[in-house]
Amino acid sequence: MMGLYVHIPFCRHKCIYCHFISGIPYNEERAERYIDFLLQEAKLYRFLYGHLHFHTLYLGGGTPSLLSERLLFRLVEGLSSLFTLEAEERTLEVNPEDVNEEHLTMWKKAGFTRLSLGFQAVQPELLAFLSRPLFDPDKTYEMVREKGFSKVSVDFIVGTPLLHTHKLLKWIRKHLPPHLSLYLLSCESGSTLAGLERQGLFSPPPEEFQAKQYLTLAKKLSCLYEWYEISNFSMGTQNRSLHNSLYWAYEPYIGLGIGASGFLSWKKFRYTNTIHLPLYERLLQKEHFPYGYEETLGEKTEKMEKLMLGLRTSEGIPLSTLKEWATEKGWQAFERTVQRLAPYLEYYEEKLILTPEGRMVANTLITELWCTLEPFL
User: Fold this and answer.
1) Considering Cα of 50, then 273, then 2, then 377, what sign does the dihedral take?
2) Distance (Å, rounded) from C-alpha 197 to C-alpha 194?
3) What is the C-alpha to C-alpha distance for residues 354 and 248, in angstroms, rounded to an integer?
4) CB-based contacts of 114: which residues, under 8 Å, 6+ apart?
5) How far apart are CA 220 and CA 218, in angstroms?
6) Which residue ranges form the domains of the chain, and what is each CATH number?
7) Which end of the chain has fewer CB within 10 Å, C or N?
8) pTM for the whole thing?
9) Does the pLDDT value for residue 310 go beyond 90?
């Protein structure tokens, strides 16, 4: 399978926690010019690799739901003329304030089969802290479902004392969205929160508090949902995000737009586009790929990424794969590390997986496992 990601960087305003390439004020003329360049970038891939078949399409941002009907159709139709866009899954990221009858009809008409709703919170006081506009979560969600969108994901930010977990769980149990994504509040570089932290005006919640709150929520949700990736929960395998699952399964994808990343598995090539819009435009005007970073993956890097991505999921990584990688001595050292890191890791059905507690310290565990394995590869 192969995915196509398109980054739309426009927003009404940049939320304080957001560290993505976003926040560019929206207007029709600016957005139309950007779409011109997105299609020019797509043509470069068409010229180099031919008529590619994409099984998933994902419009992320930013706020893709800001696009007018004219521009949204121009983008989708332009991409469809260059590639084959399979109907398996077409996802649009949507801000709740954009949800209305007219927009829902437009998104369905444009062929989107899945909406990713950026609720972030259901409490008014938490929405205010996150610099998000107030909205009615019950009415918004019900409107989406009544319009016939059966594939719906809802995003929430957790890991803050302002969150009343019982209120969030009550809302989820009432509506049972097919898919949930829970993200910890963080002060990532490039966000307003990070700037406030540097000035001593904001202190992030302690990691121990965040891990405990997240784990409590995750364990309660696991009675209803499949916790199939560290940040993602689905109502059965049929409601998993196919597009994001491509990333974790080490499948190829192409990213279009500023800051977008891609992975061309057949070339073992990974890239991230420049984050600077003027440079992005200049490079495309010269018919150059707008890369800000590019890397041809070596064998060790490829194995490290497969270990990292596999352990993020409930599928884990097959023991047969690990044994193929390492010498006998290396496998023995690896097993000793796994035993030492119990109860954060376990073997299950001939696979190595993280326990629920292990998912809270995944980066540390993966680093330790890789440091054990790498010398023996």
Assistant:
1) positive
2) 5
3) 15
4) 89, 90, 91, 92, 149, 151, 152, 153, 241
5) 5
6) 3-247 (3.80.30.20), 299-376 (no CATH)
7) C
8) 0.96
9) yes
